[in-house]
Every structure is written in structure tokens, then in C-alpha cells.
Amino acid sequence: MKQQIQSCQFDGRNYGIDIMKILSAFMVVFYHFGHRKYEFFEACNYVPNINYILQTLVAFSIPLFFMVNGALLLNKTYDNLLILKKIGKLLLIIVVWKVVCFPSWFLKTLVILYVLYPLLKKIFDNFPKILVMVILCFIIFPDLYNMIISILRFCSVESINIFGGGYKVESFPRTGFFTLYAIPLFLIGGICVKKKWKIKSWQSIILIAIGLIECLFEAVVITRTTGELFDSGNGNFPTIGAFLMAVGFFLLLYQVKIKESWKLPILFLGKNVLSVYLFHSILIHVINRFILPGIDTLPLFLNLIISILIYLSSLGIGVIFSRIPYLKELVKI
């Protein structure tokens, strides 16, 4: 009997969205585990190795997370009371998990997006020209701004003239603009679904490759000009490259076709992905302190295997929490 393969949209659920959730969370785990060797010797001559390239690839993860949230929220109508409840639940999760030093900055950004949701939804539904302007403004600053600063440093430009005044390039810091670079990603995630944007798989891959190259360019320029190895994962979130990679992965995975036998596990992993974000840092701390004390680097394949184990263990802990009264409120939004 021929194995049935259905488009991920046919049964009413887009499993590509779940795959994006899973992939984003895994890349965050892989990044935070971080037992990788980058071969950093001389900043002025630094050339990225495979580990550094993979770390740079991680830059799409949180931007994709924001795109997924935009795709899910902007194409439905939620009343303000429900949004307030979600904000309250997010704040509860942030406050409680702050006790165990959970890095909750991206959830704080999600709170901002929920607060802005009524306004963004109004613009999304009724004012297409304003929508385009909002997206462009937040791409120009900080994403394009950060790229221009990197280009000026690459060209060894020491100062620039603005409105008759001279300013040193080094006085212009890179910025995430209070993580508000998430706004255009949130909006474009919604647009991709609403307009049913589609491009061929190879075009998505080219988009991802261009984004990766741009992120590597910025990372290497900063490394060579500062003399310190740049954090090309987290540090590249507010960049044109991360933006392009996130859009490329979104368009690639949104159109993916899923075998019937894969739907249930993908659904399970996608629905419980918050547990991975919440518990992986604790597990990494335990591993570093008790299992791998004093070990800074591991082969790439071990990094991948251990990251998978951390992912699955975090998921398992989350499932246990989800079955305990009161505690279940801490692992679901």
C-alpha cells in the first residue's frame, strides 16, 4: 500500500509551524551547551571554523521564534481579556523561573509583543501601508544600522560626518533596540501566512545562505576590530542576516510535507516546546558541574548528541510538570 503523504495544511494544522518551534528550541540548547572549539588565535587574522559557523547559524533561532508567534497570533482574533491573561501567565513564568536564573529575556520581549498586539493587529488587518512602514523602520534600525556599522569598520573608516559634525565610528555601538527588532519578525510571520507566500525550496536555501554569510561577515569584522571573539549567535539576532535566515527557514518549513506517521510526535514536541526553554539551562548547569567539570570543548558530534539528550530530558521534565496541579501552570502559556 502506497504510504500516504499529506501536505501539512490538509488536516487543519500546519505541522511546519511545529517543526519551526522544535528547531528553534534545539538551536538554543545547542548554543547554550557551547562546548565547542573556535580556533581563536589572532583576532586580526581570524577565519571561522565549522563550530563558529554553526554557532552563527544559531542566530536564526529566536527570530524564527518571533515569526512563529506572529503567524499564530496575527491570523486569529483574540479579545483583550485573553491577551491580558496570557500576559499575566507569561509574567508569572518569568518571575518564578527567574529564581533559577532562567534567561527569560526573549519571554520579556514576547510580553512586549502581547502588550502591543491590539495595535499591531489593528495595523495588520486594516492599514497595509502603515504595516510596511513599521516593518521597514524596525529593519532599518537596528538591523540595517548594525550592518552599516560593520561595513564601516571593515572599510577601516574611523569617523563619519553627520549634519556637519564628525563622529568616530567606534562611538556607534551595536544595538538590539531593546529587542524591538522582534516587531518586524512578528509582523512578517503573520504576513507569510495571511498572504500564503511561497517560494521554491532552493530559493529558501539561498536566502538562508545569504543570511548566514551576512552574519558571519559582521561577526568576523567585529572579532578582528575588537580583538575579542564575537558571540555570533546571540550577538547576531538584530541583523539583516538573522532576519533573512529566519524568513528562509519559515518559508522552507511552512510548505513541508509530513508523513502521517510523523504527525503525532511532531505535534507532541511542538506543543511542549516551552519546557525545553525553561529546563535546559538547569540541566546544562548540572552537566557542566557534575559530569563535565573542567571540560571546555568536545567534538562536534558529542555536542550534538548531548544537546539532543538535554532537549529530550527538558521535554520529559516539562511533561511531568504538566501533570501536577499548580506546577502545570508554569510550563504552558
UniProtKB/TrEMBL annotation:
It comes from the Bacteria. The chain crosses the membrane at residues 12-33, 53-75, 87-107, 127-144, 175-193, 205-223, 235-254, 266-288, 300-322. Its main location: membrane. GO terms for molecular function: O-acetyltransferase activity. Residues 97-322 form the Acyltransferase domain. It is a multi-pass membrane protein. GO terms for biological process: enterobacterial common antigen biosynthetic process. It is found in: Cell membrane. Keywords: Cell membrane, Membrane, Transmembrane, Transmembrane helix. One of its GO terms (cellular component) is plasma membrane. Belongs to the acyltransferase 3 family. This is Acyltransferase 3 domain-containing protein. It comes from [Ruminococcus] torques ATCC 27756.
